Amino acid sequence: MDRSTRTGVLAALGTEALYGGSFVFTKGVTATIDPFTLLAWRFATALAVLGVLVALRVVRLSLDRAVVKPLLVLALLQPLVYYTAETYGVMRTTASESALIISAIPVAMLATAAVLLGTRPSRRQAAGIAVTLVGVLVTVVAGGLSARFDAWGYALLFVAVLAFSLYAALAHRFAHTRDVDRTFVMVASGAVVFGTIAAAQHAAGGTLGRLATLPLAEPSFGLSVAALALGPTIGAFFLQNVAIRNLGATRFSTFIGISTLVTLALGAAVLGERLGWAQLLGGAAILGGVYLANRPRRGEPAALPDQAVA
Prior knowledge:
Elements: H1 3-21, H2 23-26, H3 35-55, H4 65-92, H5 95-102, H6 105-117, H7 123-142, H8 151-173, H9 179-205, H10 208-217, H11 219-247, H12 249-253, H13 258-269, H14 277-294
Helix pairs in contact: 1-11, 1-13, 3-9, 3-11, 4-8, 4-9, 5-7, 6-8, 7-14, 9-10, 9-11, 10-11, 13-14
């Protein structure tokens, strides 16, 4: 495994670990705080942190009109369309149904990468994604599936799947842009759009003062926002961009099931949720699928990002 591939693999694992762990900080918050208020504070806090890092010259940006224009397309897909569609899709369906539909992202990423990038997965990548998808399905169904058909909820979740898949394919196409620039534009776009929506909602309800002081009035909310801003927002976005640049959209998709595994582990360790044998077997299938998709054959040269190995 060469240095670029190793970097991409570590970044992909870090991305999914952060995404999988984010539920610890959102599980209790979303019961009392509306989604756009949480998203607004999450992205505004992340933007403030990035602003401080830029001011201290820890992070250096190289943004101009030629760079920003394609990055705004990425930001439209992720986080704007993806987070909005996913949030409201989850609200209209059960958690299990949502997880089942979102777990289709790797398959959708294969299709979009084939159409937009002209790439196809190797047999082992396709097999690995299939095994990972089976593992996710077993894990979620083992947790209990209570179907409550909602056409709009299903449609929104499929929009989220499509948005993430298009983002991953286009992020690979725009790999010449710097990871930190992409991360900054994504975070800034989320802060502006989600902040505007949240402010409009609270203005209509006469609660702008509550919106402005929420982290101080509810310290647990403030801690959750800080954790989400630093980890699943700044950290995960940056690592996700690094992973896609080094591995390509197709190979990155093989790691997505890891977030489900992390969620299971943290649910058991932090929240005391019990794991059954079916869930453990599903977790093993997820790990096996990722290993199968990314283990080169003996004597086989490392593949370039999204290069198929027959």
